[in-house]
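To the wet lab folks,

You asked to see what we're planning to order before we commit. Fair enough. Below is the target structure as tokens, and below that is the sequence we designed to fit it. If anything looks off to you, flag it before the synthesis order goes out.
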């Protein structure tokens, strides 16, 4: 009931705004529009008869108000779209330049997305990570532990963490802490990874 009331309220405000712009002559129609041939014929027919002239004017006014409402809706949609693009760019920048390593993996532990810090932590290019299994970046002994973490998070829809040893490279093995949680309304897993300490 509240949603219907809110929708009705939005429509009333939109109509009032359109009416006000028409009355004050401040309409700024940006869309390329024209009345259809049938509407013009009907208006001409109604206005030709003095008895129907008032109806013709009322109809013309309604058409103008309706067009103004459409123009206002299009302006609002364009404005909202621009705001969403800017917000998405902001969150993308925050995600990509975050100091912590973030990864999104699927149920099979395959990386879908990873930020620059994750690429640095695993010693690979960022573009290399999508499509790789996240457990390939830890040593073979730690892989079952990481896979178990992911399965536990999926099955229990709960946040959990584990510590695994990174696959040995030029710097030697290091302990990594993985914190995992399910994405809201998704089966993808969000992973936050950070280095703990050198393995002694």
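Sequence we intend to order:
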């Amino acid at each position: 009931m509240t949603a219907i009331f809110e929708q009705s309220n939005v429509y009333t405000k939109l109509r009032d705004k359109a009416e006000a712009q028409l009355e004050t002559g401040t309409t700024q129609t940006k869309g390329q529009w024209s009345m259809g041939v049938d509407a013009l014929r009907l208006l001409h027919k109604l206005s030709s008869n003095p008895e129907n002239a008032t109806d013709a004017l009322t109809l013309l006014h309604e058409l103008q108000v309706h067009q103004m409402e459409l123009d206002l809706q299009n302006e609002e949609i364009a404005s909202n779209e621009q705001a969403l693009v800017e917000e998405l760019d902001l969150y993308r920048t925050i995600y990509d330049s975050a100091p912590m390593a973030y990864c999104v993996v699927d149920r099979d532990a395959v990386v879908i997305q990873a930020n620059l810090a994750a690429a640095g932590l695993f010693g690979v290019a960022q573009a290399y990570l999508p499509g790789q299994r996240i457990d390939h970046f830890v040593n073979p002994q730690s892989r079952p532990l990481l896979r178990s973490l992911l399965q536990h998070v999926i099955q229990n829809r709960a946040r959990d963490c584990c510590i695994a040893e990174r696959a040995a490279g030029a710097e030697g093995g290091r302990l990594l802490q993985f914190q995992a949680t399910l994405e809201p309304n998704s089966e993808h897993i969000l992973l936050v990874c950070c280095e703990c300490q050198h393995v002694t």
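Structural context that might help your review: The two ends are 64 Å apart (CA to CA). The domain at 99-198 is CATH 3.30.450.20 (Beta-Lactamase).

Thanks,
Computational group
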